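Protein record
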Amino acid sequence: METLNIGYFKNFGKKVIDQAKINFEKSHPNIKINLVSLYQDQVKNELEDKNIDLALTDPRDNNFDDYSVESIAEVSLIVLLQAGNFMKSEQTVEMEQLKNIPNILIATPKEEWGELHYHKDILKITSPFIAVDSFNEAALMAASGSGYFLMNENTAPLLKNDQLQKMFLLKDGKQLKQNYSVVYKNDSLVNRELITEFKKLLAN
Protein backbone atom coordinates (compact mmCIF):
# COMPACT_ATOMS: atom_id res chain seq x y z
CA MET A 1 0.00 0.00 0.00
CA GLU A 2 1.28 3.45 -0.93
CA THR A 3 1.59 6.05 1.84
CA LEU A 4 1.14 9.78 1.32
CA ASN A 5 2.66 11.84 4.14
CA ILE A 6 0.85 15.15 4.55
CA GLY A 7 1.94 17.81 7.02
CA TYR A 8 -0.45 20.44 8.30
CA PHE A 9 -0.03 23.61 10.33
CA LYS A 10 -1.38 22.58 13.71
CA ASN A 11 -3.16 25.90 14.36
CA PHE A 12 -5.49 25.02 11.48
CA GLY A 13 -6.92 22.17 13.57
CA LYS A 14 -7.66 18.68 12.26
CA LYS A 15 -11.36 18.78 11.41
CA VAL A 16 -11.04 19.80 7.75
CA ILE A 17 -7.98 17.70 6.96
CA ASP A 18 -9.36 14.63 8.79
CA GLN A 19 -12.49 14.72 6.63
CA ALA A 20 -10.41 15.14 3.47
CA LYS A 21 -8.31 12.13 4.52
CA ILE A 22 -11.42 9.96 5.04
CA ASN A 23 -12.91 10.91 1.67
CA PHE A 24 -9.61 10.49 -0.17
CA GLU A 25 -8.94 7.03 1.28
CA LYS A 26 -12.46 5.93 0.32
CA SER A 27 -11.72 6.86 -3.30
CA HIS A 28 -8.20 5.39 -3.19
CA PRO A 29 -8.21 2.26 -0.97
CA ASN A 30 -4.65 1.49 -2.09
CA ILE A 31 -3.32 4.76 -0.63
CA LYS A 32 -2.94 5.49 3.07
CA ILE A 33 -2.64 9.10 4.21
CA ASN A 34 -0.39 9.77 7.19
CA LEU A 35 -1.09 13.17 8.79
CA VAL A 36 1.76 15.02 10.52
CA SER A 37 1.04 17.96 12.83
CA LEU A 38 3.67 20.71 12.46
CA TYR A 39 4.37 24.16 13.74
CA GLN A 40 4.95 26.81 11.12
CA ASP A 41 8.76 26.85 11.08
CA GLN A 42 8.92 23.06 10.62
CA VAL A 43 7.03 22.93 7.34
CA LYS A 44 9.82 23.85 4.93
CA ASN A 45 12.41 21.63 6.65
CA GLU A 46 10.07 18.64 6.62
CA LEU A 47 9.42 19.12 2.91
CA GLU A 48 13.13 19.60 2.19
CA ASP A 49 14.05 16.45 4.11
CA LYS A 50 11.25 14.55 2.32
CA ASN A 51 9.61 13.58 5.59
CA ILE A 52 6.33 14.83 4.12
CA ASP A 53 5.12 14.88 0.52
CA LEU A 54 3.05 18.02 0.79
CA ALA A 55 1.81 20.43 3.43
CA LEU A 56 -1.33 22.36 4.25
CA THR A 57 -0.11 25.63 5.69
CA ASP A 58 -0.21 29.42 5.67
CA PRO A 59 2.81 30.48 3.56
CA ARG A 60 3.11 33.84 5.38
CA ASP A 61 6.41 35.39 4.25
CA ASN A 62 8.35 32.13 3.92
CA ASN A 63 10.55 31.72 0.86
CA PHE A 64 8.95 28.95 -1.17
CA ASP A 65 10.64 29.84 -4.48
CA ASP A 66 11.54 26.21 -5.24
CA TYR A 67 8.10 24.93 -4.32
CA SER A 68 4.63 24.88 -5.78
CA VAL A 69 2.23 26.90 -3.65
CA GLU A 70 -1.45 26.48 -4.49
CA SER A 71 -3.94 28.58 -2.56
CA ILE A 72 -7.12 26.86 -1.41
CA ALA A 73 -8.90 29.60 0.51
CA GLU A 74 -8.53 32.79 2.49
CA VAL A 75 -10.26 32.76 5.86
CA SER A 76 -10.88 35.71 8.16
CA LEU A 77 -9.00 36.06 11.43
CA ILE A 78 -11.09 36.07 14.58
CA VAL A 79 -10.25 37.79 17.87
CA LEU A 80 -11.35 35.97 21.03
CA LEU A 81 -11.48 38.05 24.19
CA GLN A 82 -13.41 38.43 27.41
CA ALA A 83 -17.13 38.94 26.78
CA GLY A 84 -18.26 42.40 27.78
CA ASN A 85 -15.32 44.35 26.36
CA PHE A 86 -17.52 45.30 23.41
CA MET A 87 -21.26 45.34 22.76
CA LYS A 88 -22.70 41.93 21.86
CA SER A 89 -23.97 43.37 18.59
CA GLU A 90 -20.46 44.35 17.47
CA GLN A 91 -19.05 41.83 15.01
CA THR A 92 -15.72 43.48 14.17
CA VAL A 93 -12.86 45.11 16.05
CA GLU A 94 -10.07 47.34 14.77
CA MET A 95 -6.52 46.37 15.69
CA GLU A 96 -6.03 49.87 17.09
CA GLN A 97 -8.76 49.18 19.68
CA LEU A 98 -6.73 46.25 21.02
CA LYS A 99 -3.35 47.96 21.39
CA ASN A 100 -3.51 48.11 25.20
CA ILE A 101 -4.73 44.52 25.59
CA PRO A 102 -2.08 41.75 25.62
CA ASN A 103 -2.02 39.50 22.56
CA ILE A 104 -1.76 35.89 23.72
CA LEU A 105 0.48 33.80 21.45
CA ILE A 106 -0.29 30.09 21.45
CA ALA A 107 3.16 28.62 21.07
CA THR A 108 5.66 26.33 22.74
CA PRO A 109 9.16 27.77 23.29
CA LYS A 110 10.26 26.34 19.90
CA GLU A 111 7.35 28.00 18.11
CA GLU A 112 7.40 31.32 19.95
CA TRP A 113 9.77 33.23 17.65
CA GLY A 114 7.83 32.29 14.52
CA GLU A 115 4.48 33.23 16.00
CA LEU A 116 5.83 36.51 17.38
CA HIS A 117 7.22 37.35 13.94
CA TYR A 118 3.84 36.62 12.34
CA HIS A 119 1.82 38.68 14.82
CA LYS A 120 4.26 41.58 15.18
CA ASP A 121 5.90 41.90 11.77
CA ILE A 122 3.32 40.51 9.35
CA LEU A 123 -0.01 41.34 10.99
CA LYS A 124 1.53 44.49 12.56
CA ILE A 125 -0.10 43.93 15.94
CA THR A 126 1.14 46.53 18.46
CA SER A 127 -0.29 44.96 21.62
CA PRO A 128 2.06 43.64 24.31
CA PHE A 129 2.69 39.92 23.83
CA ILE A 130 2.51 36.94 26.16
CA ALA A 131 2.87 33.26 25.24
CA VAL A 132 1.05 30.16 26.43
CA ASP A 133 1.30 26.51 25.40
CA SER A 134 -2.29 25.68 24.46
CA PHE A 135 -5.62 26.99 23.22
CA ASN A 136 -7.22 25.94 26.51
CA GLU A 137 -4.77 28.06 28.48
CA ALA A 138 -5.30 30.98 26.10
CA ALA A 139 -9.08 30.67 26.50
CA LEU A 140 -8.81 30.70 30.30
CA MET A 141 -6.60 33.79 30.25
CA ALA A 142 -8.80 35.61 27.76
CA ALA A 143 -11.98 34.76 29.70
CA SER A 144 -10.39 36.22 32.84
CA GLY A 145 -9.60 39.48 31.02
CA SER A 146 -5.84 38.88 30.72
CA GLY A 147 -5.66 39.30 26.96
CA TYR A 148 -6.98 38.18 23.58
CA PHE A 149 -5.91 35.54 21.09
CA LEU A 150 -6.48 34.76 17.42
CA MET A 151 -8.09 31.89 15.59
CA ASN A 152 -9.76 31.89 12.18
CA GLU A 153 -13.36 31.60 11.05
CA ASN A 154 -12.97 27.85 10.48
CA THR A 155 -11.45 27.01 13.86
CA ALA A 156 -13.04 29.59 16.19
CA PRO A 157 -16.53 27.96 16.13
CA LEU A 158 -14.96 24.77 17.54
CA LEU A 159 -14.16 26.58 20.80
CA LYS A 160 -17.34 26.76 22.87
CA ASN A 161 -17.06 29.28 25.71
CA ASP A 162 -19.80 31.73 26.69
CA GLN A 163 -17.25 33.87 28.52
CA LEU A 164 -15.51 34.72 25.26
CA GLN A 165 -16.58 37.16 22.57
CA LYS A 166 -15.57 36.42 18.97
CA MET A 167 -15.00 39.31 16.56
CA PHE A 168 -13.56 39.69 13.06
CA LEU A 169 -10.18 41.46 13.16
CA LEU A 170 -9.83 44.59 11.02
CA LYS A 171 -6.92 46.84 10.16
CA ASP A 172 -7.95 50.23 8.79
CA GLY A 173 -11.39 48.84 7.96
CA LYS A 174 -10.09 45.79 6.09
CA GLN A 175 -10.59 42.24 7.35
CA LEU A 176 -7.33 40.42 8.03
CA LYS A 177 -7.20 36.95 6.56
CA GLN A 178 -5.20 33.75 6.80
CA ASN A 179 -4.25 31.79 3.72
CA TYR A 180 -4.82 28.04 3.41
CA SER A 181 -2.39 26.69 0.82
CA VAL A 182 -1.01 23.36 -0.32
CA VAL A 183 2.79 23.43 -0.66
CA TYR A 184 5.01 20.77 -2.26
CA LYS A 185 8.43 20.58 -3.87
CA ASN A 186 8.59 21.21 -7.61
CA ASP A 187 10.49 17.94 -8.03
CA SER A 188 8.04 15.95 -5.93
CA LEU A 189 7.34 12.45 -7.26
CA VAL A 190 3.76 12.54 -6.01
CA ASN A 191 1.20 12.24 -8.80
CA ARG A 192 -0.11 15.75 -9.51
CA GLU A 193 -3.63 14.41 -10.06
CA LEU A 194 -3.63 13.07 -6.50
CA ILE A 195 -2.51 16.45 -5.17
CA THR A 196 -5.24 18.20 -7.16
CA GLU A 197 -7.86 15.78 -5.86
CA PHE A 198 -6.78 16.18 -2.24
CA LYS A 199 -6.74 19.96 -2.66
CA LYS A 200 -10.34 19.88 -3.92
CA LEU A 201 -11.39 17.82 -0.90
CA LEU A 202 -9.79 20.39 1.41
CA ALA A 203 -11.57 23.22 -0.39
CA ASN A 204 -14.93 21.54 0.18
Summary: The chain has a mean pLDDT of 91.
